[in-house]
Protein: DUF4178 domain-containing protein
Organism: Ottowia oryzae
Amino acid sequence: MADPVAQRVYRAPCPGCGAPVVFQSAQATHAVCAYCHSMVVRSGEALQRVGRVAELFDDHSPLQIGAAGRITLDGSAQPFTLIGRVQYLGDAGRWTEWTALLPGGSTGTLSEDNGAYVFTRPVDAPQPLPAAGQFTVGANAVLGGKAYSVAANLRVQVVSAEGELPNRPSLERPSQVVELRSADGEVLAIDYATDPPQAQRGRAVQLPELALSGLKTESASDDRGVRQFSCPNCGSPISVQLASTRGVTCPQCHHVIDLSSGIGGELKHARQAQRVTPVLALGSTGRFQGESWQLVGFQRRSGSIDGEAFSWDEYLLYQAQRGFQFLVDASDGWSLVRPTTGAPDYTPGASTARYLGQTYRRTDAYAARTDYVEGEFYWPVQVGDRTANTDFTAAGGNGVLSREQSGNEVTWSHGEKLPAAQVKQAFGLGTELARSGRADAAPWTPDLSRALIIFAVVMVLLFILLVLMGSCSDSSGGGGSVRGAGGSYGGYSSGGSHK
């Protein structure tokens, strides 16, 4: 692919080691020396050393500096080349932001987070921005006349950088990043590391649509993709297959191990008291949406509504080009869902939410807990993790929508209900799927199913009351007692946070 920019390349020796440092972008003010990791800034015809960055965290990304592709901007396809990257560590894990050189010397950012990608460009703040602390996660905000939902308000720290950078990253102190999402899929990120804050606007993209070339070779990815270490609890060998894995379980002692600091960091582990056997085997592949997805993680979650306890299972599926999605096995049926980029049109506490032109009605709201995990996960999952969940269902259809809030982040997920026969066919299973004991999910009808249940309960209570009254009138010393038996309710879950 041709170089998208026709301009003079700036080159000067690194003040730290003398190696050549190249600037391709006229907008790049800083760069990291590839040899001594010095952070340098252009000063006239020379470079000035302003610090040193740490070694890059090996995230096994398929992207690398020099990779080129095409992105549709303002209605036309434009070439770009990756010229730098910054690695961040936030409250919910690590992610990478790649600097993309566009025609004319301008730059954009390709954010890479757990197999999901968002392409943004710098924009002028739509209005004087409020302080980061004034953005409440889960609340709505209007900027520049456009409505957004506050998806995250994170405290982040730059941990490393490479190549050319449009601004000097703050290596000395953490800063606040606010992420806003709109109903039409737009992402607005505000970085408070500078004064005034910097804003970037964009949308989600998938790797195939970028037509990337110059990626890490498949053989190199294979050689570096599998990481091995010993379990910190029992010493058994553990192999980590996915580059994005931040949590894994030991196949021998089933302890949950936190890899968010990398294998070279301190390995934290937590015991799981009781093992759960998944219906679908870890490592197996299922075919959905015309692609083969590998089952890499499993978790059992639970909640309660009005004192009635219920549980459900979530299977984490992975596909190299499309990232992650969740296959959910609840008592009301199977669902296939994935985190959304945009935030549905929703006011916290409202009875409806609107997404992609479809209205969804709230069915339940409850606190959820992670009870058991097995396999690999792209966030540092732990037994005992808790979220506040709200579930929605499309009236008369199979669409499902879920909202999860945990601390300083809100995640929306969207998908559809699946018949058990489709799940069986996807994994090539026989009678073993019947062990789940799940019935197929039926399209939801507003108020009808719940009204029938309430009517039946009322009729039973009236009948028992009449029997007791008759018993009291016929016997002076008689007494009676009524004991209700509660059944479990299977709630739908979004499948967890995107980090």
